[in-house]
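Researcher: Can you fold this with zinc ion in place?
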Amino acid sequence: MNLDNFSCQNPSCPDHNKTGAANINLYTRYGRKQVRLLICKTCGRTFSELKGTPFWDSRLDWDTIEKIYRSLLKGSGIRATAREFNLSKNTVKRYLRLANKDYQTVLNFLQERGVVSNGDSQLRELLNQFSSRRQASDRAGMAAV
Ligand SMILES: [Zn+2]
């Protein structure tokens, strides 16, 4: 498990916001989503891996979130993905937007679950594809995606 992307969230800790300082360990997991509670070895504070990320403000379970991205990455459109998992198109679009907004968190999530390989080219390509598609339809004056 790679914790290099996490940093201590305690503002008075000497290692606050430092990534790759090897001070972060897994403390425990909690809740329905088995969210990781991390501990900073420097100051002893614990904090949730979700802290500071808008990505996880979601009622979907993580397996479903993973499936949404898997589906999009294998080339299914928003409509097809929504239909396959019985979601609204807006929900699928929301996860695309989140991948744009909180790119690193989404990338970490997908890498940890083995959805994408180590590089980030697959996710970048996906986002490029949808942003250029949206621009194209904006130019054509189409309201719906
Ligand atoms: Zn700390």
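Model: Folded with zinc ion in place. The first helix runs from residue 62 to 73.
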